[in-house]
Amino acid sequence: MSPAPQTRLLDKVRDKIRLKHYSIRTEEAYTSWIKRYILFHGKRHPKDMGKNEIEAYLTHLATRRNVAASTQNQAFSALLFLYNEVLEIDIDGEIKAFRAKKPVRLPTVMTVDETQRVLAAMTGQYLIMAQLLYGGGLRAIECLRLRVKDVDSGLNQIVVRDGKGQKDRITIFPDVAKEKLREHLAQRKALHESDLADDVGSVYLPNALAIKYKNADKEWGWQYVFPSSGLSVDPRSGIRRRHHLHEKTLNRAVYKARKLAGIIKPVTCHTFRHSFATHLLEAGYDIRTIQDLLGHKDVSTTMIYTHVLNKGGLAVRSPLDIHAQNPKSQ
User: Fold this and answer.
1) Tell me, what is an example of a GO biological process annotation in this record (predicted)?
2) Is 51 assigned a catalytic role?
3) 268 inside domain
């Protein structure tokens, strides 16, 4: 049986993505969208399609599938990558597909008391990770990808490598987490030495670093701070080694802690980051400092937290309360 027409093309897409050192998550997302695009148009080869077919597919996602704006944008980025980078075909003119409406929503933020209650319901390495999410404003994947060398208690800082937008930044290393993390790293080092003895002690490095530093993948400093409990085979290299914890395990731990703490509002890993920013604003820190700590490209992104400060209704008093205190004014 002959292979599906998109099989070889997807291999070319993967090769191009790896040549550009994109993450495995980007590779999986882009190849998935490209495959769905081909299937949507009856398995026609993309080189025989163009602007009109792209518009039709993106419109389908928005009107029939009701996807979020961010989802539609990811699909669009995948198709642009396919045409511009793989097929080397320029898509002339503006894509005029019906675009999904991007909702304007305020982030969910915990109070300081709620945050402490959730943290109190967590234990072990999940408590340490949650302390870093809240204490340093890290995204979940940034926390999980932390390397030993990037956690610096002496300089009181955490270096976030290759964050959103492929940017590095420096954020706070909370004092409260230091002792627990020190004990965790002692156990982590023993695990690494055991892995080395079993010849499975290497760790994934981005391609450029793996080439530049030949033996760095086995050095202690490059190991993940929060490793997986088991070994797995790297889908790209085929090497069996220990990766970092999966994001789902941290999400489950946060969900369980939220339930134990009796918090009604939805709490995810990202809620700690929202709370970090809001509580710093409440403490009087300036918006530009918080922007740098969060790694936002535009300060307007950080400004959203000025709307969720704990002042209720943008600090406006309800007329019901005003008249209740001044009944003669009625």
Assistant:
1) DNA recombination
2) no
3) yes
